[in-house]
Amino acid sequence: MRTSWLIAIFVLLAAAVPTLLFSGYHLFQMTMVVVYGIAILGLAILTGINGQISLGHGAFYAIGAYTTAILMSSWDVPYWATLPVSAAVCATVGFLVGLPALRLGGLYLALTTFALAVAIPQILKHKLFEDWTGGVQGLVIDKPEAPFGLPLSADQWLYLFTLAVGVFLYALAVNLTQGRIGRAMRAVRDHPVAAEAMGINLAMLKTRTFAVSAMYTGVAGSLGAIAVAFVAPDSFSVFLSITFFVGLVAGGAASIGGTIVGGVFIEFVPNLADLVSKAAPGAVYGVILIAMMFLMPQGAGGFIASLWRRAGRPGR
Known about the structure:
The protein is mostly helical. The chain has helices at residues 2-16, 18-21, 24-49, 57-75, 79-98, 106-125, 130-133, 154-177, 180-190, 192-197, 202-228, 238-251, 258-276, 281-295, 299-312; strands at residues 139-140, 230-231. The chain has a two-stranded antiparallel ribbon.
């Protein structure tokens, strides 16, 4: 336990170092890594821990982003105050979307959530909501400045703010998944019939897990909107949901810490592929992804956990 706390403190201090060393653009990239990590964390709780497949989490990301953008642009709500509102809205929508999970599972549930991801951008463009969402043009919001006269640029402050929110959400996720509720989630994932026989309410657990998962991804969407300072329907296409799923697999489906690796993969690997080949970056991206899956079939989180176990048992 003491070793775990020391590692956590070291990682946190290392995460704060870019504030002093990186330029504005690179700080923005690091901010988006944390944002994507939180979004993938929501998907990991649902898919990796509870076993419900979702291909539509880009929709919850969009809902969270637009909730923040509308509150900031129309009602002048402070950026930090939009996060709990976004969390509540996305948790409610996630609970309602999770209701079909009671009768659907596997590929059928995946297609249902995929349909949600396809529908949300079109709904955001509809003239019925255009006065709120800005239609095709989207909404522009102001990037927050550092409070209390702190000698920090907007990018530095936003990175630290996002990092603080991320630390809180990750700690909450660890507490949730390592306790009684987390064991119930894994039991439902591994053997739902046996879990129900042990007294677990499958319906309530699945819908609540969907709500928590949507809440995490929605908060990530809010942070992403604040970082980018702009939202538009085309920014939340169905490809975003697929990207989150790729990040989940790359980091390790059931790994909490691996979600940060998934965020790094989403943010930097496409840029790396573009640097390697301007003509066919998609092909390079595919090769990198296939190589990663071949070398680390359980994702980066599973690979690191395997190395940790081996280091603890050098005699074997």
